[in-house]
Specification:
Strand 2 and strand 3 form a beta hairpin. With 483 residues, this protein is of the alpha/beta class. The protein has 13 helices and 22 strands. The strands form 5 sheets. Strands 1-2-3-13-4-14-20-16-18 form a 9-stranded mixed β-sheet, with helices on both faces. Helix 6 packs across helix 7. The chain starts with 11 loop residues before the first helix and ends in an 8-residue tail after the last helix.
Length: 483
């Protein structure tokens, strides 16, 4: 079924609202290039809107009631938000769930070395990437270093105009005949994704200064052996009070340097790092903040580790979400184990994740009738998975009809899609994990071009329409379609 382009349906007021929203979204992308940065941004934002920390409410001995807004953070990398409705929690919640981690390079725990006059940081790629896309582009370093005494040092280098950037080298075309014979997944090996961080040796006067301060003969020998590495270590010590051993307790992420940009002569698109899945995270956040006096409790889950299987304490597979709901119900005076199970089973959810946008350059990889198109609105994937729907949540027809009805009433533009051609495509989200509770779940979000590349593209209209869709979903009172 041919779908109308969303841009054609917008009047001047709607376009003005769209531009305001997408400007705010691009700022979020610039300030949140890691999970920690995203959670910091979100907490600062929601506290100005009246959200309170769940543990602070419990610690004060207060109870919760309809209209209250609370949140709970897990290890600075995941967050769950609740806007309590007037109906009992046991009747379920309306849930939006997205993830804030994105493919990147992680710095290893023993990373700094010198070779051929360069200082390098050794990395391990995170999530599904085409490794060759990460060479020769400007890179930035974001993250934290935690010292043994618990002091946390925040590092963010490569984003300001005055900052240096980093890069991964590639073989020049004149010598690349053998390299170009390799398959794309072997052109750049994982162990070759080490970033160059310096080329200047520790100056002789600095070495003399250190000797006068009592450096050992062993240290002087090391300075002569790896002078560029020693120069980097001195800079780290001077700028961050950081020793080499502090890399052991560091979480440093290598991401593309630079800000989100409008794309196209018509400025209709956004080109930025990390839109999978921060585009759905931001749209979900805004939908929560716009919600007023819900009947059914609204919930937004923004989690880590989706790109590597939702594992670990901050991933969706952990008990973080379930424990948070239990705490919420206890503070509302409704908690017992059966009530918790009933709440989760009666909930409805939009698993808010991106979908692959149809790319005419690679048309053979898609089923054109069942592909997502940029500019045609919010995307629904009845199922994801791969080859025979393996690993997929497969939404019920009744639930899809319920969503269709809401969107028609609220005049939200939607399209349906699959992740590529049968026997070729595939992917996963957090939907199947929440479906384990017995709740109704479907995948929904924004069509993305260049998914998992350092720079991904979205349509402003799709991003805005997805926010509208999430906001509409939160207003309804479950499967009976009662507002």
């Amino acid at each position: 079924m041919e779908k109308q382009n969303v841009w054609e349906t917008y009047d001047a007021d709607r376009l003005k609202e769209l531009e305001h929203f997408t400007k705010e979204y691009m700022q979020f992308l610039d300030e949140g290039k890691t999970e920690r940065e995203c959670i910091d941004y979100i907490v600062n934002r929601i506290e100005t809107e009246g959200y309170q920390e769940l543990e602070a409410v419990r610690g004060a001995g207060r109870s919760l009631q309809a209209g209250d807004k609370v949140y709970h953070v897990c290890m600075n990398k995941s967050i769950v938000m609740f806007h309590i409705g007037s109906r009992p929690l046991e009747e379920g919640m309306n849930i939006l769930g997205a993830h804030v981690d994105s493919p990147r390079l992680d710095v290893k725990q023993d990373p700094l070395y010198e070779e051929g006059g360069f200082a390098y940081l050794d990395t391990h790629y995170y999530g599904g990437v085409k490794k060759y896309q990460w060479v020769t582009i400007p890179l930035a370093l974001h993250g934290v270093v935690v010292k043994k005494d618990g002091t946390t040092i925040e590092i963010k280098v490569g984003e300001d105009a005055e900052d240096p950037v980093f890069f991964i080298s590639d073989l020049l075309i004149h010598l690349a005949a053998e390299q170009l014979e390799k398959k794309a997944n072997k052109v750049i090996e994982g162990e070759a994704l080490d970033i160059i961080v310096g080329n200047r040796p520790l100056k002789l006067e600095q070495e003399k200064e250190q000797t006068e301060e009592g450096s050992s003969d062993e240290k002087k020998t090391e300075n002569k052996k790896d002078p560029v590495k020693q120069g980097i270590l001195k800079l780290l010590k001077d700028d961050y009070d950081m020793e080499e051993e502090d890399f052991l307790s560091a979480e440093l992420e290598v991401v593309p340097a630079g800000k989100a940009r409008e794309a196209g002569f018509d400025r209709s698109m956004i080109l930025a790092y990390g839109q999978d899945d921060r585009v759905c995270a931001f749209a979900s956040l805004k939908a929560m903040l716009e919600l007023e006096a819900p009947m059914r409790t609204a919930c937004c889950i923004l989690v880590d580790k989706e790109e590597i299987g939702s594992v670990g304490a901050t991933g969706m597979r952990s008990r973080f979400f379930e424990n948070s709901v239990a705490e919420l119900m206890a503070l509302c005076g409704d908690y017992h184990d059966l009530a918790l199970r009933r709440c989760l089973a009666a909930s409805t959810m939009l698993s808010s994740d991106v979908s692959s946008a149809f790319d005419p350059t690679y048309a053979a990889s898609y089923d054109k009738k069942n592909a997502a198109y940029m500019g045609r609105g919010m995307v629904f994937n009845k199922f994801t998975g791969s080859r025979g729907k393996s690993g997929s949540n497969d939404a019920n027809a009744e639930y899809i009809a319920y969503i269709r009805d809401i969107f028609e009433k609220e005049q939200v533009r939607l399209q349906t899609a699959e992740l590529g051609r049968v026997d070729l495509g595939g992917g996963g989200t957090i939907a199947y994990i929440l479906a384990l509770y017995g709740m109704q779940v479907i995948d929904s979000g924004v069509a993305v071009l260049n998914m998992h590349a350092p720079w991904e593209a979205t349509s402003k209209a799709d991003v805005f329409e997805t926010k509208r869709g999430y906001a509409a979903f939160l207003k309804y009172n479950g499967m009976n379609n009662t507002k």
